[in-house]
Amino acid sequence: MMPVAARTVCQMLQRRLASSAAAACLPPAELRSHRSALFSKELARQRSLYPRTEKIDVMLQGPGLQGTLLVMNRGLSTPYSCTRHLTEWHVKSSALALVDGQPWHMHRPLTHSCDLTLLTFKDDDPQIANQAYWRSCAALLGHVLDAAFKDEFSVELLKLPEVPVTAGAFCCDLVLDSRLDSWIPTEENMRSLTRDALQLIHKDLPWEPLEVSATVALEIFSHSRCKQEEVEERAAQSQNGTVSLYRCGDHVTVSGGPLVARTGLCSQYEVTSVHTVGECEWGVLRRAQGLSLPLNLTAHHKVWKMLRKRAERLVRNVCV
What we know:
Elements: H1 4-23, H2 28-47, E1 55-61, E2 69-73, H3 79-83, H4 88-93, E3 96-99, E4 102-104, E5 114-119, H5 127-146, E6 155-157, E7 170-176, H6 187-203, E8 208-213, H7 214-220, H8 225-237, E9 242-248, E10 251-254, E11 266-280, E12 283-294, H9 301-312
Parallel strand pairs: 1-5
Antiparallel strand pairs: 1-2, 3-4, 3-5, 6-7, 7-12, 8-9, 9-10, 11-12
Helix pairs in contact: 5-6
C-alpha cells in the first residue's frame, strides 16, 4: 500500500496537471475572476465554522490603550473591528496588529482571547509595520503588472522577493509572454504603471487575508505551475501546512508574511524600473521595482528625486 504522504503528493501532481490544462485557455481577466470566486467560496466556508456567537476578551496594549478591555466575537471580530470601538485615528492609522506578540493582519478574525497591540508607522519602533508595508507595496505592484498587458499576453508573477526597506526599492519578479521577450520598458511605461497603482491606492481597497490548506491554494492557482510550486514550498515550511493568501479587488496572491490593512495606507508611490535579470526555468526573468512612502510620511521633491534614482538601480542578492 502506498504511504499517505506519497499518495498525497501523487494526488497533488495529478490535480496540478489536470487543472493547469483546463485553465490554460482562460484569458488573464477570467483567471483573476476565477481565483477571486474560489477565494470567496473558501472564505464563506471558513466563516460558516462559527455558527454561534462566542465572546472573547481582547486586552489592548500600547500607549494610551494599556489595559483597555474589549469583548468581541470569536471568529468574526478582527483587529480592525476593535479599532472601530476606539477613535477615528486608530481606524485610519493602524497598519498591522500584534496578537499575543505575533504579527496579525488587521482583517484576520480573532479566534481566542488575547492581548492586542495596534501598529502604526509613527510608532517608536515601526520596523514590523515598515516591513509589512514594503511587502504590501510589492504585492500592489504585482496587482498592477498582472492587469497591465493585453489579454492576449500571459503574465506569470513569481514568488515575491523578501526585500528589506534598506534596499531602497521593493521588488516584484515576473515572466512575460515569450512574444514580449524583446520588450524594453520606456519612461511612459513606468508612468502608466504608476498611474494604475495610484488608482488602486485611491480606491483604498482592503487586503483580505485567508489562511488555506495547500489543496485549496493549488486549486486557486490551478493556472500557474510556478505559483503551485510556491504553494507547495510555503505549505511545507508552515507548521500547520497552510498557506497565506491575500485578495485586493479581484487579484489574489500568496504572501510569505503579513500585509498592511489597505491600499490607502500608501501615500507617495512610483514604479521606477523594470530590469531584465536573465533566464529562469519559466522564461525571461524580469524584476519590477518601485518606491513608496506611507500615509502621514512625505518627502520633499528633491529628497524624493534622490530616493527615486536609487530605486531605479537593480536590487540584487534578495531572498526569494
